[in-house]
Design goal:
10-stranded mixed β-sheet, Pseudouridine synthase, about 325 residues, about 20% helix, 7 helices, about 25% strand, 3-stranded antiparallel β-sheet, alpha+beta, Structural Genomics Hypothetical 15.5 Kd Protein In mrcA-pckA Intergenic Region, Chain A
Length: about 325
């Protein structure tokens, strides 16, 4: 009998303590599409210590996860990472020690595979060096967002840094180029957000009074004729938070094909959103460390064009 044809009970090993349930299942189920995993959880077929759970449930060492039969079409196993991709990840290391990596994630590369994506950054990273085989994402960035991404190499660091993310102790700064003239009066957007998942598995987020609290601070860094470069600080870390808050303010991010529904004033291939800086305590006893990622070439070129070739009046 194929293991997928019967109920399995899997004990969470210590190295995966603190991991989200959905990411745990992605690895355990060998390429089952993310949308299928979410349906199994939503229906209560997946259980943690016999209780119902959510995709974002954090697992503890020794937890027992019930995995139901999951017959039906499965996604392909992660593809082999090309040598070019492996070298690109190595070249993008901003910092590494025995506990963690900080990478300058490129725009266009998803952080993990699933739902038609054969390989993501974390799967490729695990194939790049033997000592990275157990690497885990400490947090996420959208596929089209570039910049600082923290990777855990040790379970203890993963638990420690994810606690900081959950309690708001991580300082996250972004740069975004938005359409139009951002008003100096818009310095804080405090607008709850609700996440919806379409049948295709695609995530869409909308402002909703009954959603989760979401706060974003904005400062104008440089105005242009028909765009504004913003410095952004996140006080919360909701899915697509910066993109939806900018759209809510009437100034969608340039290159955002998901939330910019109007004809773009400045067409651009990539999302002009960059996780520029992140600060946190690497251990409970050390002072805060700050890591910065330089802007990607596409973003620098866009800014150069705006500075050198403003539109005619």
């Amino acid at each position: 009998m194929n293991p997928s044809d019967k109920v399995q009970y899997v004990q969470v090993p210590g190295r995966q303590c603190g991991q989200r349930l959905d990411n745990f299942l992605l690895r355990e189920l060998g390429g089952l599409p993310r949308s299928r995993i979410y349906r199994l959880i939503r229906r209560g077929e997946v259980r943690v210590n016999r209780g119902r759970c959510k995709p974002e449930t954090r697992l503890e060492a020794g937890d027992q996860v019930r995995i139901p039969p999951h017959t039906g079409p499965q996604g392909a196993a992660p593809a082999a990472a090309s040598e070019k991709l492996k070298q690109s990840l190595v070249d993008r290391i901003l910092f590494e020690d025995e506990a963690m990596l900080v990478l300058n994630k490129p725009a266009g590369l998803p952080v993990h595979g699933g739902s038609g994506i054969r390989i993501g950054l974390i799967e490729a990273l695990r194939q790049t060096r033997p000592e990275w085989f157990e690497a885990e994402l400490a947090h996420r960035l959208d596929r089209e967002t570039s910049g600082c991404l923290v990777i855990a190499k040790q379970a203890g660091f993963l638990r420690h840094v994810q606690h900081q993310f959950r309690t708001g102790a991580v300082d996250k700064h972004y740069l975004a180029l938005v359409q139009g003239h951002w008003s100096q009066d818009i310095q804080l957007i405090d607008q709850p957000l609700r996440k919806n998942r379409l049948s295709s598995g695609e995530r869409m987020v909308k402002p909703d009074p009954d959603g989760k609290a979401a706060k974003t601070r904005f400062r104008i860094k440089q105005p242009f004729a028909n765009a504004t470069l913003l410095e952004i600080q996140l006080e919360t870390g909701r899915t697509h938070q910066v993109r939806v808050h900018c759209q809510h303010a009437g100034h969608p991010i340039i290159g955002d094909r998901k939330y910019n529904l109007d004809t773009p004033v400045i067409p651009h291939k990539h999302l002009a959103l960059h996780a520029r800086k992140i600060s946190f305590h690497p251990t409970p006893t050390t002072s805060q460390s700050t890591f910065e990622a330089p802007l990607p070439p596409h973003f620098n070129q866009l800014l150069k064009n705006l500075r050198e070739h403003p539109p005619l009046a």
